[in-house]
Design brief:
10-stranded mixed β-sheet, VC0467-like, alpha+beta, AlgH-like, UPF0301 protein FHS49_003227, 10 strands
Amino acid sequence: MDMPAFLSGKMLLAMPGIGDPRFEHAVIAMCSHDSQGALGVGIGHVIRGMGFHELLAQFDIAPGVAPDVPVHAGGPVEPQRGFILHGNDWGGQDSIHVGDRWVLTGTIDILRAIAAGTGPRQWIAALGYAGWGPGQLEGELTRHGWFVADGDASALFDRRTEERWRAAYAAAGVDASLLAPAAGRA
């Protein structure tokens, strides 16, 4: 089976029965994938009881015009570290452009810009990320667990969190209700 070499700008969708409850129905926006490993940010689940205003308060930033939207569970690695996935209409220090699809920023300047109303038009806040060492993700892709789907800005910004998993499968032509939690044998 030929594995995609670089998954930046794609979506990783957890298959039913992935075996790790942290990734059940996960939707991960892949931001970096090369020979050194991979990094993605989960956009399929929110952190219950955590709003964006609370995140801003941790940095003594007044919420200004920022909506108090839920913060996403970005992944199990460094769950205290924050990231903003956003459109290409804003770029700050250390922003990583993921092709022409979206941008990843993990610095405080974007929080201030969002609060001031000068940040990106579309954005998602997340704490933590999903990370893989060299070759680890490629190995996981050869086993039951992950499905690679095309990523685009509408998958991130135009869907409600609880719709993303099913909608990303549908965009790939897959009816998620027909997925089995285990692989079969022929």
